[in-house]
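sanity check this:
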Amino acid sequence: MNIANIALIFVVVVTAVAAVVYMARKNKNEIVEDQVEVDDKTYNLDKMVKFVKTRLDEITKINLYDIGLSEEELKRRRAKKYELKKALKGCTYGDVNDKKYVKELIYDLLAKEYGVDETNISKAIPFDTPSLLTPQDKFEIIIHEYKKTFGYESLNELIKKYKLDDFKYIEGESKPCYVITNEEIADIYDAEQLHLDFTDKLEVVVQRIYQKYKGFSSIDEIRDMNIDGVSGRSIWSSRKFLKPSCTN
C-alpha cells in the first residue's frame, strides 16, 4: 500500500469520526427539531397547539439510547421523560399537580423554542385590543388575575363580588335561572381595569393551549375551583362557554 492510499484512508477515517462526534454533540444537548417557519399565522393558537403536541410527542417517544448520552445524562433524561409521560396521563384525569407540570413545560417551549414574545403574543389573543377579546378571553384573563390572590377560591370571590349567583331571567326562558352572561363578563372586565405583563399574557395563552390539548375545554379552569362543580347546581349549562341558558 503506497503513501497516497494510506493518506486517503486516513482522511476518510478522520472525516467519519468527526461526523459522528458532531452528531453526538448536537443530539446530546437537545432533541433535534425542525426550525419554526415564521409567517403571519405562526403565532395563532392553532399553530401553537400543533407545535406543542409535536414537541411533547417527540420528547416522550425519543429513543435516548440512540443519541450518545453519558450515563448520568441518560439517567436524568430518562427520569424527565418518565415524569412527563406520567404527568400527561395524570392531567387527563384532572390532577392539578400534573396539570401544573405540563403547563410549565408548555410555557418553556413557547418562550424558548417557539419564539413567543411581547410583540407577537397578541396574535394569539388580542390582549392589547379589548374590543377584539371574546367573552372567553376576558373570563380567562379575569380568573388568571384573581388566582394570584385567591387561588382556587377565585370563582367564588368573583361571584360574591359581582353577585353573579342571583337568579336571572334570560330571553326565551320562562323561568329565572343561574347563569353568567357575556354582558356581565364584559362589564366585569371593564370594571377590573386589569394590566397584564408579558408573563401574565403567556400564562393565559398557555392555559388556552393546555385546555385545547389535554384539559377540559372552556371549563378546564372552572372545574379546579372550589365550587359546586360543573354538574348539579351549576352556573354553567354546558361545555360551550357562557352559553346563555341555565341548569336546574
